[in-house]
Amino acid sequence: MTSVTETGEAVFERDERGGFTVVVDGYPQSYVHPDDPLLLAFEYVEHLGALLDTLAPGPVRVTHVGGGGLTLPRYVAATRPGSAQVVLEPDAALTAAVRARLPLPRGSRIRVRAVDGRSGLAALRDASADVVVLDAYAAGRLPAELGTVEAMSEMARVLTATGTLLANLADGPGLPHAGRVIAGAVAAGLTPRVVLGMHEVLKGRRFGNYVLAASAEPVDLVAVGRRVARSPFPTAIWDEAELSRRTASTRPMSDDSAEAGPVPPTTWLTSRRRR
Question: How many independent structural domains does the chain possess?
Fold first, then answer.
C-alpha cells in the first residue's frame, strides 16, 4: 500500500511475519506488527522501550515528539495499560494513512495532534508528562528547532520534577551533533544519565542511534543492564560519568544557531537492523 503524505510518499512494506515497515520517501521510519505491539524491530525503538521498562511500574503520562507509525505509543499502551499519551506529529496525512492501514487498538488512550513539536510542546501544561520522548525525523534528520536549548527547556517544563526525557539521536562517531543536543538538555536543567546504543555505534565504528535518558532523578543502571541483557540487539551502555567525559566541553545550540541532524549515510538507511 502506498499513500501520499505531507512529507512525501509513504509505503507500507509487509514482511513474512505480518509486520509492516513504514517507509517515507525511502527512509524506513517505523516498524509495526498490528498483532504484536511488543515487537520492537528497530534497535533504537527497542532501546527506548528498554528505558521505559525500567521506570516505576504502572501507567505513565507520555508526550511523544514525533509519531510515524506510532510504534512506541502502541508499546506503552500494551505494557502500561491506562497510560495517557499525546503524540505531536505534524504530518496529518501520514497519521491518517497509518490509522487506516494499522489501526490503533481500542481504549489505547493515544491522542495524535497534527502539530509540529515546538508548537505542540508550547501548548502543553507545565509538569503534564512523566516522560517526553523525542523521536522526530524529517528526511532522516532531527529538525534543527528540536535540538536547541530552547527546545530542551520546553521539554523540561512539560516534564514533572521526577520526569524523564528520552531522545533518539542519530549521529556519527564523536557525537558532533548529538553532543550539542545533550549539552542543551544539561543547560535546560536535565542531567544526562545513560545512553544506549549498538556496540559498534558506541565504540565509534559507524553512524547510528544514541538513545539518551536525561532526568533530574538518577536512573537505575542495574535495572537498565538487566533489561538490555534480554535485548535481541548487542547493546552497550554509557553511564553518567562516561557521558560527562564525552560531552563536558560541548556547547549547546540555540534557536539562532540551530543545525539539523547529520545526513545519514545511504548504507545505514539500507541496512537498518531488525530482529
Answer: 1
